[in-house]
Each structure stands twice: as C-alpha cells, then as structure tokens.
Amino acid sequence: MREDAATGGGLSTGDRLLSVIEVLGSQDGAGVTEVADQLEIAKSTAHAHLRTLHDRGYILKRDGTYHLGLRFLQLGQAAKQPWDEYPFIKEKVEELADESEIRAQFLAPEHDEAVYVYRSTGRHSVPTDSRVGVRIPMHSVAAGKAMLAQFPGDRVDALVDRHGLPAQTDETITDRAELDAALERVRERGYAINEGESWEGVRAVGAPVLTPDGDVFGGLSVSGSPHRVDPDDLADLVMGAANEIKLEFQYE
Amino acid sequence: MREDAATGGGLSTGDRLLSVIEVLGSQDGAGVTEVADQLEIAKSTAHAHLRTLHDRGYILKRDGTYHLGLRFLQLGQAAKQPWDEYPFIKEKVEELADESEIRAQFLAPEHDEAVYVYRSTGRHSVPTDSRVGVRIPMHSVAAGKAMLAQFPGDRVDALVDRHGLPAQTDETITDRAELDAALERVRERGYAINEGESWEGVRAVGAPVLTPDGDVFGGLSVSGSPHRVDPDDLADLVMGAANEIKLEFQYE
DNA sequence: ATAAACGTTCGGAAATGTCGAACAGAGTAG
DNA sequence: CTACTCTGTTCGACATTTCCGAACGTTTAT
Q1: Domains of chain B, with CATH numbers?
Q2: Which residues 30-59 on chain A approach chain B with CB closer than 8 angstroms?
Q3: Would you list the DSSP string of B116-129?
Q4: Whose CA, among A178, A230, B154, B201, lies 20 to 30 Å from B95?
Q5: To the nearest whole angstrom, how far is the Cα of B191 from the nearest Cα of chain A?
C-alpha cells in the first residue's frame, strides 16, 4: 500500500503494526491468516504483530478472531478532547439539528482531510454517533469546502498535490479549476453547498468555523434530501451558528 | 514499565510504538525530548517513532507538540461497534439515568478490567461523554463487582493473580477473602453496592448484564452521592434494566 | 477417516532499529 | 547584539531485531 516508512526515516515495523490495526479496524474481526494475506506478509509475522497488540491489551480474541479493543476508545476520547474543551461546539450542532430538523455536523480539518467530530439528528435522534471519526476528502463535502475556501492558496495546492481530487459520486468536483471557481463562490456567499457530491441525493449547506484570530477551526453543515434542504433558508442559520461559536471563543 | 515484549515473541519495536502513543494519550501534547525522557530512549529513537506515527496520520503537531490525531477516534468507534450493534443498551442507560435522576453507566469487561462504554447523567446532562473509554479495576466499582460475581472462580483467581487488588480509596476491597465474601453477597442479592470504594463519597448500585446464554456481557450501575442513592429503591430498577437488556437479545 | 485450513513455534539470514554525536534553529537572558 | 540553552533533526555504524519458510499441533470440514 504505502512505502513511506522506508522512505524518510520511519520505522517499517511500526508502520506494519499500524497496518495490522487498520486491517482489524476496517472489518469486524480477522484471523492470523487473513491479516497476513491482506498485508502480504508471512503468517508468522502477522502472528507476532497480533501477539504484541494482544499482550498490550489493544486487541482481543472473540469468536476465534481478533478485534480492536476498547483501549482505542480511550485513545479516541483523548484525541477528541481538544474539541470537548469547547462544549458549545457540540451544543451548537445539536441546536442546529433541532432547528433545521435535519442532520447537523461539525467536522475538523486534519492532515488535509475532514473528520466528523460531532453529529446530531435532532431531538428524535438515533442516539448512536454514526460517522463520528470518519475521514472524508475536504473537497467533497460542504463543511470541507467551506474550510478549504478559507485556506491560503498554497495550502490548497499542497492538499491537491498530495491527495488529488478523488470522486465520490459523479457530481464530485474533480477538476482543479472547477474547485477554485467553487471556492471563490463560497467566499463570496460565505457558505458552501454540496449537491450530491459526496452521496447521491444528499444536499448540504456548510460554513467555516473560525477562531477570533481568523484561523480555520472546523466546518459546520446541515444535510438531508434536497427537498428538505433549501440553501436560502438554511445558509443564515448555519453561518449564524458558526459565528456564534466564534464569539464563544472570546469568553475563554 | 513492561518488559513483556521481549518475553514471548512480541515485537519490541511495536511495543515501543504503543508506548509512545500512550505517552501522548496520557497528557495533552508532548515533544520529542519529553517522550524520549519518559520512555528512557534516545531522542533520535523517539523522533523515529513520532515520525512514523505522523507520516501515517495518527498524530499531529499543534503548538509545537505532538498530539493524538482523530484517526484514533475512528479506531475507537470501530472498537465500540460491537456494543453499538445493540442500541437498546445505550437506551437503557439513558432511561436509567432519567428515572433515577443520577448518573447511570454501562461497563464492559475487557482484559480483566472494566471499561466505561456508555454513560448518561439524565435529561439535564452535560452532553460530553466523560469517562467513556476509561479502564478501572473490576473489584473497585459496582458494575465490576456485579460482573466478577458471575465469573467462574478460576477466572477470578487468574484476574487477581495478574492485577492484584489495587486500592483506589481507603474503602476499596484489597483482601482476597473479603472480595470472595463480597461476591457471595452479590450473588445472593443479585446486585452489587459500591460504598466509596472507587471515589470517596460516591455510592453506586450495579447489576450484571447477561446474554440469554448466561454469559457476562457487561455491567450496569447508577451512582451518586450517598443521600441520593438508596440501594433499596434502586436495586430493582437497575436489575430490571439489566434484565430487559437480556430479554432484548432474544429478538436479535 | 482423511483432508484442508488455521494458529503456533522455531532457527537462521537479512534487514532495521537504536544509539550517540553532531548540526541547525528557536527562544531567552545577559 | 551576543552567547547560551533548549529544542528538533540528521547521520553512520553496530548490534539487535524482525522477518520468512518450514514444520508442528489443533481444529473444522468433507
């Protein structure tokens, strides 16, 4: 998959350990042979890695296959902590979902991708945090485009160089010039629209969340089927919420 | 800390990588030198590990120090998935918190420890998932004792051999005979009580959550200051909720 | 009962992680 | 403004480790 480890002073063994973790995370449960096959390493090697993770309590055996253990839940909470420090972000997401009666979400930029940090489906919500932690290319979601539009040009350049503009649907922007035009429109309007660019038949309206200093802190969006998402109605709501978060930072 | 890696076919490099992750997770942010000092390894070694994690997108630099990245949030969600498969568990925790008007939680047994999976403080909750993912010795919490009481004797033996009975407060059970007596009482009554054994001034009532097959699936408990926690009132509520979860499994 | 698949152990060859020293850069105190 | 200290970074060489393949034991399927 990646050869980055050898290139540039990384540790290939550690790299492989992470690959093993990813294999276990991307499916529910895998055995020694399955891990070895997927990573194209010897069974005995896969076994050694799994043993390391098991001895340390990071994975466990259930029904004869290995699974990620709850230690990752602890690490995940630790990783999320910087956002939990500002509880009003989660509150605003819930407010937004309640008022708009569609899904609302807050995404954070990380390593040039957008990551779902909070999500709410309003008062009548299915209580599970579906999609939390999921990474998605920034150019393919409304909140991501809203953030991109705030980045300096060279940062966008670097991002596109590294990841390209992978298509999620037929509507995804895959052309650099088209992206620039879209970002320019976002800056003019102050909000971004996603018209089936990440999932067919899903429309979203997103706005950037800035710190008082003007740094991009994340992106806020609401999404749902097109007939329930009217940008003219929702843009002010989303931008307002984003701005309220910005103001809350003042009192920290 | 641990020398387990060398002993028994583990990979010491991978072991060290996990240690680096733990250092970053146990505090907010650490630099190369700090990691090296804490693990007593060369700065250049710590640097190599951090680079590996950084190149793979697992950690990131913020304000000049390294922090866990949101990729761990994704792994954490994957680790939690087996419980999210049964949404009624989370629902029952919330019900329990609403009805008792104190905190309610569901803990899962893993690697001989109890891990907070769900937690609710009722309708007027602070919405953050505080304590989720935290690991705690089973003998020191109500839900943990409730689970322990269901384990076969040799499993309790193995657990005590491995971890001992570390004290959290002056009230924590640290004597094996005393633990056995306590577990026997739990079995008689059907529920466990925690009287300041994990935190001073916190009382809890817990019950085991079993599968229809009789396996221990987890533990449910409510907790709060003693004057708000009357075991005679709450035991039936907690045991009832635990039993309802058991019944829900039937329809899966 | 036989076969096939899986997890596990082991030794040796080859690859790689570790260390320390040296370099560069940022920040601070004088 | 300079000197000093702290940080993060690079590099080469040695020693350690990882990795593989083959063989063994165990379970599941035919």
Answers
A1: 12-69 (1.10.10.10), 79-250 (3.30.450.40)
A2: 47-49, 51-53, 55-58
A3: EEEEE--TT---S-
A4: B201
A5: 25
